[in-house]
Design a protein that fits this description.
mainly beta; protease; globular; Peptidase_S1_PA_chymotrypsin; single chain; 34% strand; Thrombin, subunit H; disordered N terminus
Amino acid sequence: MKHEEIRTVMVGIAALATTASCVVAGEDALADDWPGIASLQYAQGRSMMHECGATMISERWLLTAAHCVDEARIERNGTAAQYYRREDGMMQRLGPMRVAVGRTHLADDEDVKTYAVTALHIHPDYVPGEFERGSDIALLQIEAGYKGPYMRIDGLGFDAISLASDTYVSVAGYGNTEETSVAEGDLNARGRAVYAPSLRLQQASLPLLSLDACKAGLDAAIELHGLEQVYGDYSLGEHTVCAGGGEQDSCYGDSGGPLVVHDEYGEPIQVGIVSWGLGCARAGSPGVYTRAASYSDWISDITQLDEPSG
């Protein structure tokens, strides 16, 4: 989740405490309960830096937030690298992007395979650097080889789910467990250092909010922190979902990760993508999520996955 003070990606491990979000006041989660859960990373030397969450939605396609990859580039070798824009406007390369999928723990799990990103598709209505204006959604294609489970997406192949206020939804990620927590690091089975706000996957349950309640909470937080010039043009509507506003929340590093409901069999369906908020788990300040079903046509057009029904 993007923070009101973080507008660019910073270099090094210190950046992970601010640009990468985890779940606040959550609990340990198992990757098996989150099919296709993924960590977007970039390599610096032999170290891997978690930056955002994502979900595999097929064997080659990954769903995430646009602000996680709006500075990334496909390079001459046909794979993506992460960049950031310095204060002087110049782009600086951080390192090649890699995707780790299905990790309960980013360093302790025996699986150390990661996948290169071979294509980037950011929604055409997304304005770079202005995630609060909406369409904060992107699709990434990875190299062949992944054969694991993937997440079902609301509205993709079936009618969109009706989401009522006060319904409880769940979110998961490797982001901060507190608003000001710092990055963790450990060696994986290959001897590479892996850094993330939380190396252990976390999850939390949050209530959905009506758009009116969401707007009231955001407006109050924006006024309290004097952020009218930065966030005065934020957008809510059918393309967004709001949740939280209490002790549990997504946070820095959870960006791009899944917000889900569970069907009658207890299986998750992704209804949202972690996008932005003002701080983490601040009383009355909700989190804003991109509504997946609002973009199902675009997802289908890019990926050629199931057309939405209805």
